[in-house]
Amino acid sequence: MAETIVLGSDHGGFKLKNAIKTHLIDLGYTVKDLGCFTEESCDYPVIAKAVANEVLSSQNKGILVCGTGLGMSMAANRFDGIRAAVCTDTFSAKMSRLHNDANILCLGERVLGQGLAFELVDIWLNTQFLAGRHKVRIDMI
Q1: Residue 1's pLDDT is what?
Q2: pTM strictly above 0.90
Q3: Catalytic residue from among 11, 23, 87, 99
Q4: Would residue 134 show up in a list of annotated catalytic residues for this protein?
């Protein structure tokens, strides 16, 4: 069975979320899209909460998209057990998984081009957590 990725966005990340959804499906992932479903203005904390709760209950990874990725990360990181990382470069995407075991990737539609966003998603999903001394630090959070 294909790995499931939980997706969510507000109106500011709607187009990029849909592009990422197609990209993930093309790569063989199963996608659980928790909204939003139009470009009509909506509240990002509602979507972040839904994705965070689904990630916590399912142990699947999540991706949140808003205008910058910042609002989504702030809202998602309010939930115990969520480690949401805003990534705008490939090194951060890799390290957020390798050392920080991020379980939600946050991206900004107004900050990233689609090609870079796909590259960040691919790196993030294909990087495994190192554990060891990094696990000790994660447990401190």
Answers
A1: 55
A2: yes
A3: 99
A4: no
pLDDT of 134: 84
Residues near 30 by beta carbon (within 8 Å), at least 6 away in sequence? 1, 2, 3, 4, 5
Mean residue pLDDT across the chain? 96
Report CA-CA distances (Å) from 3 to 61, 70, 98.
9, 26, 19
23 is catalytic: no
Please give the sequence-ordered ranges of beta strands (E in DSSP) within 37-82, or none if there are none.
61-66
Q: What is the pLDDT of residues 25-69, one digit of tens each?
A: 999 999 999 999 999 999 999 999 999 999 999 999 999 999 999
Catalytic residue among 11, 36, 42, 66: 66
Question: Which of 80-111 are b and which e, b meaning 16 or more Cβ less than 10 Å from the residue's Cβ?
Answer: eebbbbbbbeeebbbbbbebbbbbbbbbbbeb
Q: Which structure tokens are listed for 71?
A: 């609002």
